[in-house]
Write a structure and sequence with these properties.
GO terms for molecular function: aminoacyl-tRNA deacylase activity; aminoacyl-tRNA ligase activity. By secondary structure, this protein is α/β, with parallel strands linked by helices. Helix content is 27%, strand content 22%. It is built from 5 helices and 8 strands.
Length: 161
């Protein structure tokens, strides 16, 4: 995988600008590795923190599941929505090897090719969510509908009940 000259954050920022995003990218010295860390750093409720999870589809390509912070992915629902035989969470080594992004900084976009993307329907209850921007110190605010447009993703019931 070819690396962007400005690193993972540069890849995300370049993609955001290409899509017409005019908002800021925020950087903090504190980590945003967990939802709780991000909530504290951003000053927003955990529900407004975007959790980006990469999953393996049929032991092959990756798909992206975007969730409201406290929610957990229901892999059976994701499997049905993606039309797959199997869906498993990608392990950290696979995520880094295939995307260049490390856990805690996995963004919703900025990939060489945008993975198929499912957006937790709970996200759409909030005017703005906060997403990682390529590392565990950088994040950006975005409206859920704008995020759906940017990712080409589908609004879906993908959270575990």
């Amino acid at each position: 995988m070819e690396e962007h000259p400005a690193g993972p954050v540069g890849r995300v920022e370049a993609r955001l600008r290409q899509l017409g995003y005019e908002g800021p990218l925020h950087r903090t010295e504190d980590t945003i590795f967990t939802v709780e860390d991000a909530s504290r750093s951003v000053g927003a409720p955990a529900e407004h923190i975007l959790k980006s999870l990469l999953v393996r589809v049929d032991r092959g390509p990756l798909a992206l599941v975007l969730l409201s912070g406290p929610n957990r992915v229901d892999l059976k629902k994701a499997k049905a929505l993606l039309g797959a035989r199997t869906v498993t969470l990608a392990d950290p080594e696979t995520v880094v090897a295939l995307t260049g992004f490390r856990p805690g900084g996995v963004p919703p976009l900025g990939y060489e090719e945008q993975p198929p993307t499912l957006l937790d329907q709970d996200l759409f209850a909030y005017p703005v969510v906060w997403a990682a921007a390529g590392d565990d110190h950088t994040f950006f605010p975005v409206a859920p509908e704008t995020l759906r447009e940017y990712t080409g993703g589908a609004r879906a019931d993908v959270r575990k009940a």
